[in-house]
Design brief:
By secondary structure, this protein is of the alpha/beta class. The chain contains 13 helices and 18 strands. The structure holds (2S,3R,4R)-2,3,4,5-tetrahydroxy-N-oxo-pentanamide and cobalt (II) ion.
Length: 412
């Protein structure tokens, strides 16, 4: 069948999401996630102005050909805007192919390699008592693996720590849903790497003492360290047996990971801001990482991320797909189908979306005993309620950024 219609839907239930909806000549629909946190409208324009006209009249069944046409045909390759747009087309066509076949997408990818996906959530607290409460709260929500972020003495506002309750979560403190972070200008946070490096090992020691050796613990360094600082932190955290240390250095300088690797056996995860297999090529071939953090939404879709993960599998590197709330329920569903099918699944990041988001996107995934499963609806298993989406117009929102004590802008 040919593609008859392609619409770009920008909606902001709890937060902004960009969704591509493709309709075929016989009325089948497919959804794709193109959300790029803080730069949403750039992808809306890329899709609506440049990609939609190319889709109309195309054969819906030709997923790989459409991907290659959009990637190679544009001449300008890679980059988050381009790859989020291509990802949305790819996801929507897989959704349609599943519906056409009457099968969930994971069946088309080779079928289930496991019964469910181990997922981790985000515990945080400005101090240890708050952090412990947050870990317990996550355990009560069913999480069996938990990311730990804390405040650092002397710093007022630090990445990943909620400082106020969120309405979207009935008063639960959530750093990704704070109204203060959704203003018309980005919020400024502060940073000091030496204080952080002094403080963090003690936090992990306390968490291990309180919660025992079994619980898988993760931590996100959010690109803030130099190679030698990252090596030092990885080494200092070894006694606490982390599942992974994420984004220890900025991902642009990939050679830096060689130095980190020489000094520590703490597993490393990288790549939530990477966009193509080329960005991962050296990291994978040189075995500089243990987990691929790429998201379906930012890596050009299911087709492209599957190739990257198949390549990673040759080096015993596993998936650790990015799954914050700025990946829409459509992007999360795509991640779950892919994660269920591949052999080298590692872990899936999962932060629950808010109630308004769940009212716009009707979903069929399950969350039981700390495990996700995409469900068995044909396609991706997500439907978008256009009327409901229309109730929540786009709101300008930026990610926060960082300055050191002397005012220097630091990596965020
Ligand atoms: O900063 O999703 O691991 N998760 C993260 C996230 C990212 C945001 C960026 O859009 O690092 O909190
Ligand atoms: Co991260």
């Amino acid at each position: 069948m040919t593609i008859d219609k392609a619409e770009v839907i920008l909606t902001s239930p709890d937060r902004n999401f960009v969704t591509l909806k493709i309709t075929t000549a016989d009325g089948l629909t497919g959804l794709g996630d193109a959300t790029l946190n803080g730069r949403e409208r750039a992808v809306v324009s890329y899709l609506a102005d440049h990609v939609v006209p190319l889709l109309l009249g195309r054969d819906e069944s030709r997923i790989e050909d459409t991907w290659q046409f959009l990637y190679r045909g544009a001449y300008w390759r890679r980059g988050p805007v381009t790859m989020a747009a291509i990802a949305a087309v790819d996801m929507a066509l897989w959704d349609i192919k599943g519906k056409r076949a009457g099968m969930p997408v994971y069946q088309l990818l080779g079928g289930a390699s496991r019964t469910g996906l181990l997922a981790y959530g985000h515990a945080s607290g400005k101090d240890l008592p708050e952090l412990f409460d947050s870990v317990r709260d996550h355990q009560e929500q069913g999480y069996r693996a938990i990311r730990i972020q804390t405040g650092v003495p002397g710093l007022k506002a630090v990445y990943g720590i909620a400082s106020q309750a969120s309405d979207a979560f009935g008063g639960e403190a959530r750093y990704d849903h704070e109204p203060a972070r959704r203003g018309s200008l980005p919020m400024e946070e502060d940073w000091d790497t030496r204080s952080y490096l002094r403080h963090l090992p003690g936090v992990f020691e306390a968490v291990r003492n309180e919660f025992g050796p079994e619980l898988p613990l993760l931590h996100d360094g959010h690109h803030r360290m130099t190679p030698i600082e990252a090596a030092k932190l990885g080494k200092a955290l070894e006694p606490y047996d982390l599942f992974w240390l994420e984004d220890c250095t900025p991902a642009e300088n990939q050679e830096a990971l060689r130095l980190v690797r020489r000094h520590t056996t703490t597993p490393l995860a990288i790549g939530e801001i990477l966009n193509t297999v080329w960005d991962f090529k050296d990291l994978i071939r040189e075995q500089l990482i243990d987990y691929v953090r790429g998201a379906v939404t930012h890596m050009g879709g299911i087709s492209a991320l599957k190739k990257t993960l198949d390549y990673a599998a040759m080096f015993q590197i596993k998936s650790g797909m990015h799954g914050p709330t700025d990946i829409s329920p459509v992007g999360m569903a795509a991640a779950m189908h892919l994660g269920l099918a591949i052999h080298n699944f590692g872990i899936q990041e999962y932060m629950r979306h808010g109630a308004k988001t769940d009212s716009v996107f009707r979903q069929s995934f399950t969350w039981e005993n700390g495990m996700l499963h995409p469900g068995d609806e044909p396609g991706l298993g997500v439907e978008l309620d256009v009327d409901e989406a229309g109730k929540y117009p786009y709101e300008q929102a930026y990610l926060p950024y960082n300055r050191l004590a002397d005012g220097t802008v630091h990596d965020w």
